[in-house]
From TrEMBL:
Keywords: ATP-binding, Cell membrane, Coiled coil, Kinase, Membrane, Nucleotide-binding, Phosphoprotein, Transferase, Transmembrane, Transmembrane helix, Two-component regulatory system
The protein's name: histidine kinase
Domain of life assignment: Bacteria
Organism: Paenibacillus shunpengii
Annotated ranges, domain HAMP: 210-262
EC number(s) stated in the UniProt entry for this protein: 2.7.13.3
Amino acid sequence: MLLVLLGNGFSRFYERRQVSDVTEAMKGIGQQYGLDLKQNIEPGLPAYISQFESSYFAKVAVLTIEDGIANQLLTGGGTENSQLVLQLQAPSNSDFIVTPKPSVESEVSGLMAALQEWLGDENSFQQVMEQGQTLTYKSEAASSAAGTAVSPLIAITAASTDGSQSGTILLAVSSLQPITHAASVFRGLSLYVFGAALVFVLLLAFGYAQMIANPLIRLNAFAGRLANLEFDKRIGWKRKDEIGELARTFDFLTDNLQQTLEQLQTANEKLRQDIEREKQLERMRRQFVAGVSHELKTPLSLIGGYAEGLKDNIGKGAKREKYAEVILEETGRMAAIVADMLNLSHLESGQYALKWETFDVAELLNAAADRADGLRAGKAGLHVKVNVTPAPNGETAAVADRFRIDQVLTNLVSNAVRHTPDGGIIELSASAGEKEWTVTVYNEGDSIPEEELTRIWGEFYRIDKARSRESGGTGIGLAIVREIMELHGSRCEVRNERGGVAFRFKLRLAGS
């Protein structure tokens, strides 16, 4: 229906355009032909009238009128084709006789019908002959006379006139059949065009839907991967439309989510480590409290018991002195524990500053061996050896905090004396390399269980879980050794060797 309306509208528009164009063109050739008449050119129709006929599908004739009576009619564009085809005689404008030549009757039938219509309209006749106007209109009479269903255009203009009822008139009949036929064909094809357009629109809609839906389906699948925290792929589209912008936003979101998740995992791992560290510290604190309580419980009990005996005047002479000696011994033991605890706390605080100095390693080991001799009371046949291997250049000095390194050796030697059996050997050795000393404290005796090697450095940790007084030690000495070596940027290692245990640490060689 829409195509039919478009066809009708197109037909009407073309008719109005044709009327306007024919009017202007007719007026132009009328003026030109009037000039030709004034210049007395040869009779006949000039070539520009043929051009008009070709351009507007028209038939043009020249009509001579005298005193309101049509006299003759000339047709045929071009001088060589021009011919007088009709001789008209009429008693009046409304009633006249037409005597066309038989050979051209079919050609001029439309012209004659148009001529009759114009001559029969007194108003139109006066507009052309007296007023010099150019008239263009559709003719129903010409259409009936020609036997066609299409109303032609009639165009009439005066080439010359005396202002009354005599002059030369140009008469043109222009067919609208081409455009009318095109419009009818257009209306006839409207259903086919509509069907084709419908199929095209459906195909276009399907293609466009696929063009939009497929990327959205892929984006939805990608969003599902994001929901499952899968960040191994990116869309990577280079489209410049809204879908491409959405894809780039997804990629940006993926990068941010991956980065955020990695940061969160790192933070969680750090938090887990912190929690584990706190748990470990809590266990160490409990062990420390238990160790301190156990270490102080026995001395306090002994001191309390013997002090009560002295208060009650139990015993006399040597017995009272024995009580006093026990009290003094246990008091010294508690003082040593407290001193070690304060020392360890001071080292662990991180506020202790080492006093770096150069000292002789052999002298340090010999002093430690002398202390071992003083500590081996009750150990029958205990032997202490010292072995120092200087550097290739003969250097025997090291650089460290001598007081703290001496404290390390004292703790290691004391530990060795306690765990060396009667007749056993303790060996203190130092070997110089290119840049550092390796100091070793070895003692014969039972090896340390492998699972305990990493635990002996803890505060109040003792392999003897019963913590008997006979095995000695408070369990703080090795913890102090650990802290001192860490302050020196080194560490003390322990290893079970054949027939005994060896503790080993390193010192910087003087001059390296």
